[in-house]
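To the wet lab folks,

You asked to see what we're planning to order before we commit. Fair enough. Below is the target structure as tokens, and below that is the sequence we designed to fit it. If anything looks off to you, flag it before the synthesis order goes out.
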């Protein structure tokens, strides 16, 4: 088995591609060692002591190095953990299946409640996120979650390599906000949630 590695716009995060499916659907972000207890793989990566974040995408795992960690020594450790996991075919999550560890529905985790009168606008925002924005963000080793729409403002949450990335503010303000405003005139601003 060969695991490819790609850089991301976030210098603290590398994207690892095992050449097989990681998540059958959705994504999962592990921001703390406590979050990682749900997954043997995420837990093993945090157990290196030099990892501050793990993100599972459809076909990749993004790993964020802790402050002060050196990728020259951490990268071989991460590749070793990933190889062990995928070769042994250990389940991605603890328990009988990943079904009980599903990513929460975005509607269950809104920062601001959507106004039912704006349902059509919200549908357009979500469609734009799914078709144009999420694929681009996934290429950089992360994901983006819809967190609400109110008074012309779209609230989004960056995850994985995109969370904490020095260019994430520029991505939100210049890239995503510009795209949203172009296709959906009711959108006046995009804010990080």
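Sequence we intend to order:
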């Amino acid at each position: 088995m060969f695991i490819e590695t790609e850089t991301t716009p976030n210098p603290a995060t590398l994207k690892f591609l095992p050449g097989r499916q990681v998540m059958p659907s959705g994504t999962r972000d592990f921001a703390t060692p406590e979050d990682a207890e749900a997954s043997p793989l995420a837990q093993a990566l945090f157990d290196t002591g030099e990892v501050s974040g793990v993100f599972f995408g459809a076909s990749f795992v993004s790993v964020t190095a802790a402050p002060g960690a050196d990728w020259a020594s951490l990268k071989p450790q991460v590749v070793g953990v990933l190889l062990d996991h995928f070769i042994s075919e250990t389940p991605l999550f603890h328990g009988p299946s990943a079904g009980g560890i599903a990513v929460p529905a975005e509607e269950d985790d809104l920062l601001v409640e959507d106004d039912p009168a704006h349902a059509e606008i919200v549908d357009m925002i979500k469609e734009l996120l799914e078709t144009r924005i999420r694929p681009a963000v996934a290429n950089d080793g992360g994901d983006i979650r819809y967190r609400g729409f109110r008074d012309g403002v779209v609230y989004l949450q960056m995850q994985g390599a995109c969370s904490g990335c020095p260019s994430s503010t520029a991505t939100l303000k210049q890239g995503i906000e510009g795209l949203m405003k172009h296709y959906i005139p009711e959108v006046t601003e995009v804010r990080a949630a």
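Structural context that might help your review: The beta strands are 4-7, 13-17, 28-30, 51-56, 61-65, 142-150, 153-160, 189-192. Residues 97-107 have pLDDT under 50 and may be disordered.

Thanks,
Computational group
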